[in-house]
Design a protein that fits this description.
The protein has 111 residues and is of the alpha+beta class. It has a domain at 26-98: Nucleoid-associated protein YbaB-like domain (Ybab, Chain: A, 2-Layer Sandwich). 46% of the residues lie in helices and 16% in strands. A three-stranded antiparallel beta sheet has the order 1-2-3. A hairpin with a 4-residue loop joins β2 (39-44) and β3 (49-54). Homodimer. It comes from Larkinella rosea. GO terms for molecular function: DNA binding.
């Protein structure tokens, strides 16, 4: 039999675990590169750039526009790479708390 009080308790626990998991997203990291590895960007699970490495051969005034494009490409790749890690981290933190209810999708909370 469905117990509403148990469900409310699970929701509260889910919220607490989700908050805790979100607070630890800064520990997840992922990288992206462009220009055959000449530009390397590392981001964290909060989608913040935490490291940028540029090959010294790219740092010439005449290559400024290309360098900017490579930094953008590497950053976007790193952000794309970290997305699955974020989702898996949040799912793992809340695993088993709420029953699988048809039509009740929590996927939007995981991104």
């Amino acid at each position: 039999m469905f117990n509403m009080m148990d469900m409310f308790g699970k929701v509260k626990e889910f919220q607490a675990r989700m908050k805790e998991a979100q607070a630890s997203l800064n520990t997840l990291t992922e990288s992206g590169e462009s220009g055959a590895g000449m530009v390397h960007v590392t981001v964290n699970g909060l989608k913040q750039v935490i490291r940028l490495t540029i090959d010294p051969d790219l740092i010439r005034p005449e290559d400024r526009e290309m360098l900017q494009d490579l930094v953008v490409a590497a950053t976007n790749k790193a952000l794309e790479n970290v997305e699955p890690k974020i989702k898996a981290h949040l799912q793992k933190a809340t695993e088993g708390l709420l029953p699988n209810i048809p039509g009740f999708d929590l996927g939007n909370l995981m991104s």
